[in-house]
UniProtKB/TrEMBL annotation, chain A:
It comes from Caproicibacter fermentans. The gene is lacF_6. It is found in: Cell membrane. This is Lactose transport system permease protein LacF. Keywords: Cell membrane, Membrane, Transmembrane, Transmembrane helix, Transport. Belongs to the binding-protein-dependent transport system permease family. The lineage of its organism: Bacteria, Bacillati, Bacillota, Clostridia, Eubacteriales.
UniProtKB/TrEMBL annotation, chain B:
This is Lactose transport system permease protein LacG. PANTHER family: ABC TRANSPORTER PERMEASE PROTEIN MG189-RELATED-RELATED, ARABINOOLIGOSACCHARIDES TRANSPORT SYSTEM PERMEASE PROTEIN ARAQ. PROSITE patterns: ABC_TM1. GO terms for cellular component: plasma membrane. The gene is lacG_2. Keywords: Cell membrane, Membrane, Transmembrane, Transmembrane helix, Transport. Belongs to the binding-protein-dependent transport system permease family. It comes from Caproicibacter fermentans. It is found in: Cell membrane. Residues 69-265 form the ABC transmembrane type-1 domain.
Length: 316, 278
């Protein structure tokens, strides 16, 4: 993308240079005028993003070195960052987040990939129905679907009653730490598989069917075609969905807050939720909460770099 | 031949199961909205007669669901209008008036997409708190402006409009300039009408994320009298004895606008989601 951008940039700047025609001075004034217009068009966005993202970001960094309750804050050096290493809840939240990352993201993306490969088959009957049905969860708000899931999987909810109906013992979805995590993973997968499917489908439409036909003549089965052709061809899109899902998981809040409240005993708590609790549930400690938030910042930057590196290397 | 047939049956079986799992929670939501709490606990899978009662409970509860519908609509509509205007002007500016310096600024703006919201919410909360204390009560915490302002310009939308502007025919710009049109007129009278479908797609994603937003309104609107729809639903769901008939009716209402947008404008809906990747 970057090289594409720079190529386009060269092209357009050269376009502008020729606009003024052979007369050097008029070309110069036009360029100057257009340059002023350019800054005029983008200035509002620069101001707004600075005020609502970059300035708060710097404020959070400064705050993370301050201690104190509520509004009375003073410089505290590395106190907050040292405290991070002894904080059981931080360890728990990080552990939970990594469990979600390791299990939920791959399960969802593989499922989305399989579904989109099946849907891409023009001979499949009812394609539109399947596509709409699987995409449908994306129209719900995170709070709404969390509450629906909470109801379906409550201790005396429909799922457990179904289990006991077929002779199995009910599962304590929200009161058992292991099953509560399973419930969160199931819920997120339900909500986002269709979303990722749309990206894969649009990628698959760009692949020539003749490539697959050639492979079939060579005797490749569905699994081989998937591993050796579809996955490499969709590489940039798979990478994109992996990055967005990872960043989303690192910021998980709505689902956990509404399904389990982080419980039982912090069994499902996430970093965002701990930050929220530090600020608005317990006695506000904005300094320490900012330090916790910087864990997420560092993780997002770090994981994005790794993923870009992996993607870049294997592309060559 | 036989192997192929059994494989295709397996495919249909798989797709039907996945579709069923995707749709079932919707069916459950709609059916439960017509049943009372006791029938829901008893897993009644048929439509009941309690829809009107559930709606009445919903609108007459002291959580003021009716007012929250108004707040949410106002916030989502104003956010969408402002975000589309500001971000499309910026996306247009970065693409049409390309320069090395502006490309560098654009890349810096893109970095803001990597900033997690959990790191921003504390300083934003304190910022709006401080502004409110100076006497400008209209833009402090607990105001609708505090919910709207951080979302009126996002790097994502600027990027989206910049990508879409690449398909805008640039030779008509020269013609317009020669005709003496100034740059703002070109933008409003030529660019905007041509890019209608991009605006539709951008409007859908912005409206939807604003309508469904939870964390920032939860932080900014601490006053229980000023809550958006997701906040009310969440509060109802976390009570000790949640009335699921009423909650499901509320969820149905909360899902109607996004569901309507999806079924009416499926093409733009999908374009809005993937438009920025291509």
């Amino acid at each position: 993308m970057n090289s594409e951008q720079s190529i386009a940039a060269k092209q357009i700047t050269s376009d502008f240079r020729t606009v003024g025609g052979p007369h050097g001075s008029s070309r110069h004034t036009l360029e100057k005028k257009l340059n002023r217009w350019g800054w005029g068009f983008v200035s509002m966005s620069i101001v707004l993003i600075s005020v609502f993202v970059f300035f708060p970001m710097i404020a959070a960094l400064i705050m993370s070195f301050q201690t104190g309750k509520g509004v009375n804050m003073h410089f505290g050096g590395l106190t907050n960052y040292i405290r991070l290493f002894h904080d059981q809840t931080v360890a728990k939240a990080l552990g939970n987040t990594f469990i979600y990352l390791i299990f939920q993201v791959p399960i969802m993306l593989i499922l989305a990939l399989i579904i989109s490969v099946i849907l891409n088959d023009k001979n499949l009957k009812g394609r539109t129905f399947f596509r709409v049905a699987i995409f449908l969860p994306c129209i719900t708000s995170l709070v709404s679907y969390s509450l629906i899931m909470k109801n379906i999987f409550s201790n005396d909810g429909i799922f457990n009653q179904l289990l006991s109906h077929i002779g199995l013992s009910p599962i304590l979805w929200t009161t058992d730490s292991f099953w509560a995590k399973v419930l969160i993973i199931l819920s997120i997968t339900w909500r986002w598989t269709g979303y990722n499917m749309i990206f894969y489908l649009s990628g698959l439409q760009g692949i020539e069917p003749s490539i697959y036909e050639a492979a079939e003549i060579d005797g490749a089965n569905s699994f081989q075609k998937m591993i050796h052709m579809t996955v490499p061809l969709l590489k940039p899109i798979i990478l994109f969905t992996t990055i967005t899902s990872t960043i989303g998981t690192l910021q998980l809040f709505d689902e956990v807050q509404n399904i389990t409240k982080g419980g039982p005993a912090n069994g499902t708590v996430t970093i965002s939720q701990y930050i929220y609790n530090l600020c608005f549930k317990y006695t506000p400690n904005f300094g320490y909460a900012s330090a916790v938030a910087f864990i997420v910042v560092v993780l997002i930057v770090f994981l994005s770099l790794i993923q870009m590196k992996i993607g870049g290397k294997e592309n060559q | 031949m036989k192997k192929k047939k059994s494989l295709s049956i397996l495919k249909y079986f798989f797709m039907i199961i996945v579709s069923f799992i995707s749709i079932f929670p919707f069916l459950w939501m709609i059916i439960s909205a017509t049943n009372d709490a006791r029938e829901i606990t008893a897993v009644k899978l048929t439509f009941g007669t309690h829809l009107v009662e559930n709606l009445r409970n919903l609108f007459h509860s002291d959580l003021n669901f009716g007012a929250s519908l108004g707040y949410s609509t106002f916030i989502a509509v104003i956010t969408t209008v402002l975000a589309l205007l500001i971000s499309s002007v910026a996306g247009y500016g970065f693409e049409i008036f390309r320069s090395k310096a502006r490309d560098r600024v654009f890349n810096i703006l893109l970095l803001s997409m990597m900033v997690p919201f959990c790191a921003l919410m504390i300083p934003l909360y304190r910022m709006f708190g401080a502004v409110g204390k100076t006497g400008l009560t209209g833009i402090g915490l607990n105001t609708l402006i505090s919910v709207i302002a951080p979302y009126v310009c996002t790097a994502f939308l600027i990027f989206f409009f910049r990508q879409n502007t690449k398909s805008f025919p640039k030779d008509i710009l020269e013609a317009a300039r020669i005709d003496g049109l100034n740059e703002t007129r070109i933008f409003f009278h030529m660019y905007m009408p041509v890019m209608k479908s991009s605006y539709a797609a951008g409007a859908i994603i912005t409206f939807m994320s604003s309508w469904n937003n939870y964390l920032w309104p939860l932080v900014a609107l601490q006053d229980p009298q000023k809550r958006t729809v997701p906040l009310i639903l969440s509060a109802m769901g976390s009570s000790y004895t949640p009335d699921y008939g009423m909650i499901m009716a509320g969820i149905v209402i909360a899902t109607l606008p996004t569901g309507f947008l999806f079924f009416m404008m499926q093409k733009q809906f999908v374009a809005g989601m993937i438009g920025s990747v291509k």
